[in-house]
Specification:
Elements: H1 11-17, H2 25-41, H3 43-51, E1 54-55, H4 62-82, E2 91-93, E3 105-107, H5 108-118, H6 123-150, H7 159-181, H8 186-200, H9 206-214, H10 223-253, E4 271-272, H11 273-298, H12 326-334, E5 339-342, E6 345-348, H13 349-377, H14 393-412, H15 415-422, H16 426-465, E7 467-474, E8 480-485, H17 489-496, H18 517-531, H19 540-560, H20 574-581
Antiparallel strand pairs: 1-4, 2-3, 5-6, 7-8
Helix pairs in contact: 4-6, 4-11, 5-6, 6-7, 6-11, 7-10, 7-13, 8-9, 12-13, 12-14, 14-16, 17-20, 19-20
Membrane topology: Multi-pass membrane protein
Pfam family, one: Cytochrom_B_N_2
Organism: Friedmanniella luteola
């Protein structure tokens, strides 16, 4: 007869019974210094909660990682470039390797950029890696912010983290433009002239602001050295601080996760940071690094030697800014020529509104949207389960409308190239975009919302009738129908896990105080705009009726086609949705 296992209450006795693992030679060599540091700094105690932190495993979460890794690569490549770059606008005569510019007068900053491109071993590779990493950094941040927006991951308790992300994106745009302007070639100088116009368009103080920024009349002799300090010191420090705060809040609030079986607002289903996530993240960093190295070596970007040194009297034909600043230039290009002349001053609304106002409106709306939605819904609960975009059709439609508006402005930033490439009138392109920038977002909003509601109907059909199999059957009466297969319990749970908020009727007298009635009526009208068209999830009664109907169909089909094995699968879905429906 087998004896029961021995139970040990003493923890030390338990540890004594656990066999000690033999460490390899590398870990044995590292254990001594690690133990010494831990005894003095408590590294293991401090890091234990973090390394056991669980993160969900979904491809969309890699977008934020790409942004982080791109920034690290920017710091590495930027440090290399700073060893040889000279942030000076002092005039010299070029005597470097590039023969076509020998003897040409240029600034030291442009000459040092040419030296990095032709005379420093690996300089051109690192310079192009730096430029590609900057473009990838901003693209990844923008894509990451779209993922957060469309899934509702900005809701409580992550509103502050969303605002930090918006500030990070804004700092990234300014940082990218500052770096773009440092070579002092003809293209970057044209971009600086663009900024000079923005600064001067500030009402009343524009001229004084220009003299303050440029150290005199444009282009002055200080702007490159000032931009260099902003680019390598001030903005990187701010972005590093924002990244640290952003990551700290991610750890504190825990990560959002997509709906699915076993996932709720109180847990996170995924892998711990160490060893699984650390290994994945480390490998992914080297993938990003390798890809940027290939891009820097094989894909030319910003060939400054073809533009020549900056001359305020010259402009590069067909000049375009980096993609992330294209929407601002597009706004200015398609803006009508509106100006005021008051008391000897000129108010250049044709530059100030699309240039300064557009960026303020863009980032301002991004920052306040979580609070607007929270005011509409009055939803104070915490949200750790991400929404499927189709289940928030109005929010998704707003996002697509904003992307469409951004796209129209982006096209406007290259309206001259559009006109020449497609052989159409430049004026026709401009007039079209002046209308499209307002009409296209409205159309995109309507179409996107209808698509989301259509996808909701497809989910409802899948819940109530199962998955389509493509198998067509004919019953004894001669009619045809498609066989449906049962969906899994996990899929049924995923399709019904989201919360639904009501569209409120107008407030009646006595519902709220008289002085608050107007605001409450506005809020309730907003709830109807947000939620009135949403498709309601099937109730428990509807699911049970579908189950019962499925059994009846199965019996009828069996009687008419005994042995044909047909089934529509309704009986399988109630177990997957019952728990969620009872929570409503």
């Amino acid at each position: 007869m087998a004896k029961p296992a021995t139970t040990v209450d003493d923890q030390k006795a338990v540890e004594a019974h656990v066999p000690q693992k033999e460490l390899g030679p590398v870990f044995k060599a590292a254990s001594g210094p690690a133990r010494w540091a831990d005894e003095r700094l408590g590294i293991a105690t401090l890091s234990r909660p973090f390394i056991r932190k669980v993160f969900p495993d979904h491809w969309s979460f890699l977008l934020g990682e790409i942004a982080l890794y791109s920034f690290i690569i920017l710091l590495i490549t930027g440090t290399f470039l700073s060893f040889w770059y000279k942030p000076s606008m002092a005039e010299i005569e070029y005597e470097g390797t590039y023969q076509l510019l020998r003897g040409v007068s240029m600034s030291e900053s442009y000459a040092s950029t040419l030296a990095l491109s032709f005379d420093i071993r690996g300089g051109l590779l690192v310079r192009q890696m730096h430029h590609w990493a900057a473009a990838l950094f901003l693209a990844a941040m923008l894509a990451h912010s779209l993922r957060v927006f469309f899934t509702g991951a900005f809701r409580k308790p992550r509103e502050i983290n969303w605002v930090i992300g918006v500030a990070m994106l804004m700092m990234g745009l300014i940082e990218g433009f500052a770096g773009y302007s440092l070579p002092d070639d003809l293209l970057s100088g044209t971009g600086l002239r663009f900024v000079d116009g923005l600064v001067r368009s500030i009402p009343l103080i524009g001229t004084w602001a220009e003299f303050f920024v440029f150290g005199g009349e444009f282009p002055g002799s200080l702007i490159v050295s000032r931009l260099y300090i902003v680019h390598v010191l001030l903005l990187p420090a701010i972005i590093l601080g924002l990244i640290a705060a952003h990551l700290a809040l991610v750890v504190y609030h825990k990560h959002t996760q997509f709906p699915g079986p076993g996932r709720n607002e109180g847990n996170v289903v995924g892998y711990p940071v160490f060893p699984v996530y650390a290994a994945k993240a480390g490998g992914f960093f080297f993938i990003v690094f390798g890809l940027l190295t290939l891009m820097g070596g094989l894909m030319q970007i910003n060939p400054v030697w073809t533009y020549g040194p900056y001359n305020p009297a010259e402009v590069t034909a067909g000049s375009q800014p980096d993609w992330y600043m294209g929407f601002v230039e597009g706004g200015i290009r398609i803006m009508p020529n509106w100006e005021w002349h008051l008391g000897g001053t000129t108010w250049s609304w044709n530059v100030a509104i699309p240039g300064l106002g557009l960026m303020g409106l863009f980032f301002g709306l991004m920052a306040v949207y979580p609070f607007i939605e929270q005011w509409v819904t009055k939803d104070k609960s915490e949200h750790h389960i991400a929404d499927r975009p189709r289940n928030a059709p109005t929010r998704t439609a707003f996002g697509v409308a904003a992307m469409t508006c951004y796209g129209m402005l982006w096209i406007g930033g290259g309206n001259d190239l559009v006109a020449t490439q497609f052989r159409v009138s430049l004026n026709a392109v401009t007039y079209f975009l002046r209308v499209a920038v307002f009409v296209a977002p409205v159309l995109a909003f309507i179409i996107t919302k209808r698509i989301c509601i259509g996808l909701q109907r497809a989910d409802e059909e899948r819940l109530l009738h199962g998955a389509e199999t493509g198998v067509i059957e004919r019953d004894p009466s001669g009619s045809y129908s498609e066989r449906h297969a049962p969906i899994s319990v996990g899929e049924a749970y995923t399709l019904t896990q989201h919360k639904q908020l009501p569209a409120l009727l107008p407030a009646q007298d006595g519902d709220v105080k008289a002085k608050e009635m107007r605001i409450e009526q506005l809020r309730r009208r907003a709830t109807r705009f947000y939620f009135q068209d949403d498709l309601r999830k099937p109730t428990r009664a509807e699911l049970e009726e579908a189950q019962h109907h499925g059994h009846d169909d199965d019996h009828a089909l069996t009687a008419g086609h005994e042995g044909n094995g047909s089934s529509n699968g309704h009986h399988s879905i109630t177990a997957g949705t019952q728990q969620n429906v009872t929570h409503q």
